[in-house]
Write a structure and sequence with these properties.
It is globular, with a radius of gyration of 23 Å. The chain is built from 6 helices and 2 strands; from the N terminus they run ββαααααα. α1 (30-53) packs antiparallel against α2 (66-93), α1 (30-53) runs antiparallel to α4 and α4 (139-165) packs antiparallel against α5. The model has no long low-confidence stretch (mean pLDDT 88). It has helices at residues 30-53, 66-93, 109-123, 139-165, 172-195, 216-230; strands at 16-18, 24-26. The protein is 57% helix and 3% strand. It is mainly alpha-helical. A hairpin with a 5-residue loop joins β1 and β2 (24-26). The chain has one domain (16-205): Up-down Bundle (Hypothetical Protein Ta1238, Chain: A).
Amino acid sequence: MVRIDRVHTGGGDKGESSLVDGSRRLKSDLRFSVVGDCDELNSIIGLVRMECSRLPLHHQDGGDRKNAGRVHFICDTALSRIQHELFDLGAELACPPENLPDYMVLINENQADTLVSDMDAWLTQTEPLTSFILPAGGPPQAVLHHARTVARRLERGIVQLREHEGGQSVRPLVLTYVNRLSDWLFVLSRWITAVLGEDEMLWQPLGKRGKEDGIAGSILRQAEHDADFDNI
């Protein structure tokens, strides 16, 4: 049972903090870096849940928007699970494996395999990709793209930590889980777009986009129109 009476202990005032095993390290230590990335990812997923909860459940004509309800239910259920697992992961990363407390239950193959099962189910309702897609879309999808990039940063940090402290400094399954989680976030974003009947924003290579003059002309024309209205 965790009991926190106060947050401001002053123990980190000199740029150090404690790992789970009680050992002290500088806050710039690679292990704290990956723990911070894990925490940041968890926070962004909280934003995704918020954006999903904001999806309007009714059309402007008053009819139910059932697909939005489906998205809200599936996302809130799935993302809640992920947030709990990221707390588990963060606690594990905050300690060398050999010093983990005996009572700590670690994520295992079941959690990693569940990510794959979720993706397989979502992909049955999405069209195959014929192009890369831009990290954009509605609010939940855009934030999910942000989340997947932070998941990739977390993955890179774990690889760097293993290179620095040795291959046994992080369990291989942790790397597997984070790698799959980034894919999971990407597929979830695509599924939301498909269920809501929205269009994906496909990337067009430079050679296929044609001549691009920027927006200077549009800005100047808008200013001219504003001036015309002011003179009426």
